Amino acid sequence: MDDVWVYIISASSCLFLLCFFKLQRSNRRNLPPSPPSLPIIGHLLLIKEPVHRTLQSLSHRYGPVLSLSFGSRPVVVVSSPSAAEECFTRNDAVLANRPHMLSSEIFGYGLTTIGTAPYGPLWRDLRRLTVLQILSPHRLAGSLAIRLEEVRLLVKSFYKEAAMVAGGGGCAKVEMRSRLQDLSFNIIMRMISGKRYFGAAIDADDAEVARQFREVIKEAFELSGTDPSDFLPALRKVVDFKGRKRRMVDVAKRSDVILQGMIDELRSRRKRSDGGREVESKTMIDTMLSEGYSDDSIKGQMLSMLAAGTDTSSVTMEWALSLLLNHPDVMKKAQAELDDVVGPDRLPDEADIQKLPCLQNIINEALRLFPPAPLLVPHESFEDCTIGGFDVPQGTMILVNAWAIQRDSKVWDDPTSFKPERHEGLEGDHAYRLLPFGMGRRGCPGAGLANRVVGLALAALIQCFEWERVGEEPVDMSEGTGLVMPKRQPLEAMCKARECMVANVLGQL
C-alpha cells in the first residue's frame, strides 16, 4: 500500500511540475494584447455580426495585432499592412495551413480541395494544376470567347428589356443581382463542363440542374460559417448545434450527386467523340480526367471554383454599379473614357481593359470599400512564429481583416469615401494595403479570371447603357451577412440604351 501512495505522490508531483513549467513558459511569451475573456468560451460572446466590423473595433482598442480565444482555439487578428506583410512574406510558409473546420471537412471532400487541403504535397499538386493549367494566362486567353459571349448575352438581355419600354426609348427597371450571378455562374460552368445553365436556349433538364445546384451552393454558403463545435470540440460529441452537421451532410450529398452527373455526362461525351483516341483537354473536367484525377478530386475542384468564382465576381460588380449610381459624375467619366478608347461601333474586348485606367480605378475602389472577402480565408500556424513583435504559438488561427486595413485612416486618406482617383499611379504601391484576393502561397489563384470578368462586364454595361437610380434617394450601401459580403438590399436600377450604341452594336446583337 505504501508503494501505491509513493507512485501517486510521484505522479502528482510530475503533473504539478509540468503544469508549472508550462505556465511559466506561457507567461514568458510576449503574446499580443487581448480583451478580458470568460472561462471555456473565451471571447466568443464578443463576436457579433458583421464580424469584420467587430474585429475592427477591437483592434482600435487593443492594437493592430490582437489575440483572442474562440473557445479552445487561439486566434490572432491582423489589421495593419505591416503585420499583413509579415504574414505573407517572412511567415508565408509557416502560416500556409488552413484551420480544420467542420464545414471544410464535409464540403471539402475530407480536406482534399485546393481551399481546404493542409499545406503539403496534395495542396502543391492542386495548386500546380490550378495555376499552371486551369487558370493559367494561356488557358484564360483560350476561354476569352466564353466571356465575350456571356457578356454579349447579358447586354442583349438588358437591351431587349429596355426596348420594350415606351417603344424602345424609355428606362426599364431591372434587377441586377440575379443577372450578374447568372453571368458569373455561366462563365465558370462553361470553363468547367462546357455547358451554360442560365439564360436563353437552355435545355429544360439543364435548367432544372442549375436551379437545384444554385440552391445547394446557397445552402452551402449559409452553412460554411463557423460551427460552435469548431471552437468547443466537446460539444461535437454531445449535440449537433441546430442540426448544422446533419444539414451539411445532406447538402454535401445533394451537391455530390449533381457534380457526379456532370462528370459522367462529360466522360460519356468524350467516349462518343474520340472513338478511343486522346482528345484535346478544353474544359477543367477534361483536363483532370486526362491527368487521371479521381472523381472526388474533380468534384472538389469543381466546387472550389464555383464557390470562389461566382458570388465573389457578381457581388463586386453589384457594389461597383451601386457606387456609380450614387456618383453619376464618375459614371460619366468612365463612359467618356470608353467612348474614346473603344468607340460606339463594338463592345469592349479584354485587350481594351488595360487602356481604361478610370475603369480600373473604379474597380479597385469598389474592392477597397467592399471586398468580397472582408476577412481573408483563415490561415493557421504550424509552428511558433512572431507577428508585429508578438509571439504566435503553433496552432493559432490567423485572421487578416482586409476590410479594416482598406478602411484605415492611417493608410488611406478619407477612407470611407468613394474616390477612384486615389488609385492613380499606385500600381506598384498597393501591396498589403489592398488585399481583396489575399497574398502569398494561399492567395486566390482565380484573381486573374475575376479581374477579367469584372472588367469586361462593367465596361460593356457602362458603355451601352445610361443608368439611373430607381428613386431620388441614394442606393442603400449597407452590408448583408455571409461569407461573401453582399449588399443587404439587392440592387435595382433604371436602364436605358445609349443612342450612340444602338445602331452599330445593340441593334446587331
TrEMBL record:
A Pfam family reported for this protein in Swiss-Prot or TrEMBL: p450
Cofactor: heme
Record's subcellular location: Membrane
Domain of life from the UniProt record: Eukaryota
Record membrane topology: Single-pass membrane protein
This protein's UniProt keywords: Heme, Iron, Membrane, Metal-binding, Monooxygenase, Oxidoreductase, Transmembrane, Transmembrane helix
One MF term in the entry's GO annotations: iron ion binding
Keyword check for Transit peptide: no
Entry binding sites for heme: 444
TM region(s), chain numbering: 6-23
InterPro entries: Cyt_P450, Cyt_P450_CS, Cyt_P450_E_grp-I, Cyt_P450_sf, Plant_Cytochrome_P450_Monoox
Gene Ontology CC: membrane
Family: Belongs to the cytochrome P450 family.
Protein name from the UniProt record: Cytochrome P450 81Q32-like
Organism, as annotated: Rhodamnia argentea
This protein's encoding gene: LOC115746400
